């Protein structure tokens, strides 16, 4: 599966790293077709893969993720003013504190086999790829640390089950555990895709982009990354103010043009 990545400066030294929503939604649709419906099906699948521990861990994580997503959708659809609606509002406030780099790394799932990296023509392509490698390497360190930290908190938060209210701390820590796990996996995958040892360092640019679109021979080795300098993106970021970076209207135009999540892009601008 191919993922389209956008890289561009938003304010000072703050750069935006984002995946196009059209490619990430395709990944979600593909994954949903393999979702396990219940515990019996999960147990049967784990039992049949008893010799593959890593695969079983992924099955369990995907199962828990699906259950959390369904619960979140239920809260989202709750009538205004109800307890579930207030829980959904609390969840949104907590999610707003999640760093955009984590959301970006989570979007690089295991199904991604190559990436298109779109960036403004004024940036050096080696610098762009170096920044991508940096965020991937940093992600492997940070999210591994926070993953183990979240796991260690899970037993403590189970103590809140004695209360007559929903165990919000437990579910939040469970979500953060899953989120850091996904970000860690995404970091490792991205680092693998944009490393110097990948097949893409043999040929770069628009020629590889055409090969990705037109390759029909199963024996052709496709590049794992392709650099695509964009005049259109360059024209949009030229509207920035030197002090405040890209305005909200400019960011909105970029997100609309390249199908990005505007909320996450704005977070990059406001990072300290």
TrEMBL record:
Any Pfam family the entry gives: Mit_KHE1
GO biological process: potassium ion transport; proton transmembrane transport
InterPro entries per record: Mit_KHE1
GO cellular component: mitochondrial inner membrane
Coiled coil: none
Alphabetically ordered keywords of this record: Membrane, Transmembrane, Transmembrane helix
Superkingdom of source: Eukaryota
TM region(s), chain numbering: 146-175
PANTHER family assigned: K+-H+ EXCHANGE-LIKE PROTEIN (PTHR28062), TRANSMEMBRANE PROTEIN (PTHR28062:SF1)
Annotated protein name in UniProt: K+-H+ exchange-like protein
Source species: Trapa natans (Water chestnut)
């Amino acid at each position: 599966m191919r993922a389209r990545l956008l890289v561009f400066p938003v304010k000072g030294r703050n750069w935006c790293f984002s995946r196009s929503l059209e490619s990430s939604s395709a990944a979600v649709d593909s994954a949903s077709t393999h979702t396990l419906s219940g515990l019996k099906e999960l147990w049967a699948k784990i039992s049949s893969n008893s010799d593959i521990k890593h695969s079983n861990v992924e099955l369990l994580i995907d199962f828990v993720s699906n259950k959390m997503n369904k619960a979140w959708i239920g809260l989202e659809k709750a009538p205004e003013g109800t307890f579930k609606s207030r829980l959904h509002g609390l969840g949104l406030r907590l999610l707003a504190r999640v760093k955009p780099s984590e959301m970006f790394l989570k979007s690089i799932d295991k199904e991604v086999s190559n990436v298109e990296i779109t960036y403004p023509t004024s940036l050096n392509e080696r610098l762009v790829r170096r920044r991508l490698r940096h965020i991937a390497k940093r992600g492997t360190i940070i999210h591994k640390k926070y993953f183990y930290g979240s796991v260690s908190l899970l037993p403590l938060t189970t103590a809140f089950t004695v209360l007559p209210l929903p165990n919000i701390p437990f579910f939040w820590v469970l979500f953060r555990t899953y989120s850091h796990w996904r970000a860690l996996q995404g970091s490792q995958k991205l680092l693998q895709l944009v490393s110097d040892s990948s097949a893409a360092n043999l040929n770069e640019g628009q020629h590889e982009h055409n090969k990705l679109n037109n390759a029909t021979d199963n024996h052709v080795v496709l590049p794992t990354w392709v650099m695509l300098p964009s005049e259109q993106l360059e024209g949009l970021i030229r509207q920035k103010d030197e002090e405040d970076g890209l305005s909200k209207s400019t960011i909105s135009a970029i997100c609309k043009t390249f199908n990005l999540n505007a909320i996450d892009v704005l977070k990059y601008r406001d990072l300290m």
